[in-house]
Write a structure and sequence with these properties.
Blueprint (H helix, E strand, L loop, with lengths): L2 H28 L7 H21 E4 L3 E7 L14 E4 L5 E7 L3 E5 L14 E4 L5 E12 L4 H7 L4 H18 L4 H5 L3 H18 L2 E13 L1 H84 L2 H12 L27
Antiparallel strand pairs: 1-3, 2-4, 5-7, 6-7, 7-8
Length: 349
C-alpha cells in the first residue's frame, strides 16, 4: 500500500464519519434534542475529508516497473509531454489523472494448446511454405513498452498495443518468413534460420510502434496429417535402407575376415613348408658333413694302423685268425709250416 492509497482510505473514513454525524444532528433536531458540540465535529470531519480527498487525489505513486502518462485539462495537447517515472508524484487534483503503463517484460503466446495461449482454443499460426505445404507454428513473443517513447505509444495505441500491434505483427512476420522456405528445409536444416528471420522482422516492426522485443520463441512446428504420414513413411524407408546397408557391410566384413583367415593359413602353410625344406637341407648338410668327418677319421685311422703293422704282429694276428681256440701248435723240426706265412714285407706306398 502506497501513501496515496493510504490517504484515500483515511479520507473515506472521514467522509463516513461526516455523514454519520450529520445524520445524528438531523435526528436530534427532529426530536428537539440539543446538538451542541456535534456541529463543530461535523465541520471538522468535513474539512478533514475534503483535505484528505484532495491530497489523496493529487498524490500518485508508481511502482518500480511503472511509468505514467498525465492526462491534463491544462496541457495544450491534453497530456503532459513527459511521462512520470517510478516513485511519488504530485498532480493537480480532479483536473489531472494518470494512465499507468507497465514497462516490465510481458509474454504473448500463440499456441494450439488452449490453456497456454493468450486466446482460448487453437491459436497457432497457420502458414504455407514456398512449395505449398501447410504448417502450424506455436510461438511466444517477449516484449515491453519502450519507456522513452511512452507518450507516443499512448497517443497512438493507448493500452491496446498488445492486441493491435504485438499479435498481428507477430503472426504476419511468421507467415512471411515461412513462405521463404521449403517444407523439407524446415524439417531438416533451416529451422534456426527461419527463427532468426522471424525474430528480425518482429523486432523491426515493434520498434516502429515504440515496443521493445526482448526475444522470440518458436515453440513448435506441426505439419498437416498427410505430410506427417508421408514423412513417417519416408523415415521408415530410410531406416530399412540403412538396415539393408548395415547387413551388406556386415557380410562384407565377414567375407573380409574369412579371406584374411584363409590368407593367414596359406601363409602359415608356405612358411611351414619352407621351414621343413630348410630343415631337411640342414639335416642333409649335417649328415654329409658328419660323413665327411667320419671318412676323414677312418682314413686317418687306417693310416695309423698301416704304420703300426710289423711282421711279428702280422704272424701273431694270422695265428689268432687261423684257430681262435688253439693255444699250442706242434711243428716237426725241419718241416715247413702247413700254411704259408703271409708276406710281411711292406708294400711301398
Amino acid at each position: 500500500m502506497n501513501i496515496s492509497t493510504l490517504l484515500q482510505g483515511i479520507a473515506s473514513f472521514a467522509w463516513i464519519g461526516f455523514i454519520g454525524v450529520l445524520v445524528l444532528i438531523f435526528v436530534r433536531a427532529s426530536r428537539n434534542q440539543p446538538a451542541k458540540g456535534l456541529t463543530s465535529l461535523v465541520l471538522v470531519l468535513l474539512v478533514a475529508a475534503l483535505l484528505l480527498t484532495t491530497v489523496g487525489a493529487g498524490l500518485v505513486f508508481l511502482q518500480a516497473n511503472e511509468y505514467g502518462v498525465v492526462i491534463s485539462a491544462f496541457a495544450p495537447k491534453g497530456y503532459r509531454e513527459v511521462a512520470l517515472t517510478p516513485g511519488l508524484h504530485w498532480i493537480i487534483p480532479f483536473v489531472e489523472s494518470v494512465q499507468k503503463y507497465s514497462i516490465a517484460r510481458q509474454t504473448y503466446t500463440m499456441s494450439s494448446t488452449s490453456s497456454e495461449g493468450a486466446v482460448q482454443g487453437d491459436d497457432s499460426i497457420q502458414a504455407r511454405t514456398k512449395d505449398g505445404q501447410q504448417i502450424f507454428i506455436d510461438a511466444s513473443v517477449i516484449y515491453a513498452a519502450d519507456p522513452t517513447q511512452l507518450i507516443q505509444l499512448h497517443t497512438v495505441w493507448q493500452n491496446r498495443y498488445e492486441e493491435n500491434v504485438v499479435r498481428p505483427v507477430s503472426r504476419a512476420a511468421i507467415r512471411n518468413a515461412v513462405s521463404q522456405f521449403g517444407v523439407e528445409e524446415l524439417v531438416s536444416t533451416k529451422r534456426s534460420e527461419l527463427e532468426s528471420a522471424i525474430r528480425a522482422e518482429i523486432e523491426t516492426k515493434l520498434k516502429v510502434n515504440n515496443i521493445i522485443m526482448s526475444d522470440f520463441l518458436m515453440r513448435n512446428i506441426r505439419f498437416s496429417d498427410e505430410y506427417a504420414a508421408a514423412v513417417e513413411q519416408k523415415q521408415v524407408a530410410e531406416q530399412q535402407a540403412q538396415q539393408a546397408k548395415f547387413v551388406v557391410e556386415s557380410k562384407k566384413q565377414e567375407a573380409e575376415q574369412a579371406r584374411q583367415i584363409a590368407q593367414g593359413q596359406a601363409d602359415a602353410a608356405v612358411i611351414a613348408s619352407k621351414g621343413a625344406a630348410e630343415s631337411a637341407v640342414i639335416a642333409a648338410k649335417g649328415a654329409a658333413e658328419a660323413r665327411l668327418v667320419q671318412a676323414d677319421a677312418e682314413a686317418k685311422a687306417n693310416t695309423l694302423l698301416s704304420q703300426s703293422l710289423t711282421p711279428t704282429l702280422l704272424q701273431y694276428q694270422y695265428i689268432l685268425k687261423l684257430a681262435p681256440g688253439v693255444q699250442t701248435i706242434f711243428i716237426p723240426s725241419g718241416n715247413q709250416f702247413i700254411l704259408p706265412l703271409p708276406n710281411t714285407e711292406q708294400i711301398p706306398q
